[in-house]
Amino acid sequence: MEVAAFYGFSALAILAALFILFSKNLIYGAFALLLAFLGIAALFVLAGADFLGVAQIMIYVGGILVLLMFGIMLTQRAIQQEGPSRHNRVEVPITRKVWGFVIGIGIVGVLAKIIFSANFRMSGDAVSRKSTIKTIGVELMTSHLLPFEIAAILLLVALIGAAYLALNRNPAQ
Amino acid sequence: MSAISIYHYLIVAAILFSTGLAVAITKRHFVGILLGIELMLNAVNLNLVAFSRYDSDRLSGQLFALFVMVVAAAEVTVALAIVLRVYGHFKTVDPDKLDELKR
User: Which residues of chain B lie closer than 8 angstroms to A111, CB-CB?
Assistant: First the structure.
C-alpha cells in the first residue's frame, strides 16, 4: 500500500515536471507545477515529514505559485498581433532545446551513478511514527534560534524590497 | 516504513532536479526559468527530508528544508518584482533579447 502510494505520487510529480518541460504555454506549466508540488508534498508525508508537507502546500501552492501566475499574467502582451491562441507562448530555439536535453540527461546519469555507488550507511533506523511538530518547534527555539531570526529579517527585507521594486515610478502612466 | 529505501527518494529527487534544470535552460521566459528553479529547490528539499528520516530525534534535514522554503519564498518575490520592472522598461520577457551590456 505504502509502496504503491510512493510510486503513484512520484510518478505524478515526475510526469508533471516533464509536462512543464514540454508544454509551450506557461499557464499550463504553472498548473503542472501545482501538481508537481502536491506530489512532492505527498512524498514528504510518506517520508515522515508531516509538518513539512503541510508547509509545502501552504507556502508553495498557496503563495509562490499564485505569485508566479500573477507574474505570467502581468507580463503577457496587451495587444497580440498573432492572434489569441498565442498567449504566453514560449518559443524555444533548437540549440537551447538540445543543450537542455543533453545537460538534463547527463545530470540524471551522473547523479544516478553517484547515488548507486555511494553505499550509504545510516546510523539509525527510519523511525517516523511520531509527529515531527514537537521536535521541529523545540529545535527552532533552542539550537536554531539565530537562523530562525535571520529568516524573519530576510522575509521582512524581501517584502519591503519587492514592494519598492514593483512600484510604478513612471509618472506618465 | 522501511519498504521504501532511501535510494528511491534520491532517484526521484535526481530526476526532478534535472528536469528543473532542463526547464531553466530551455525556457525563454523569465517566469519559465523561475518555474525550473522552484522545481530544483523542491527536489533538493526531497533529498533533505529523505535523509532526515534516519535522524528522528534532531531532524536537522527537515529544519534545513524549512529554511530553504523561506529563502525560496523571498527569492521568488524579489525575482518577480525585478521581472515586472524589466518588462515595464524593455517590453520583453525574453532573456536573450536583453543584451544591452553586450553591445
Answer: 10, 14, 17-18
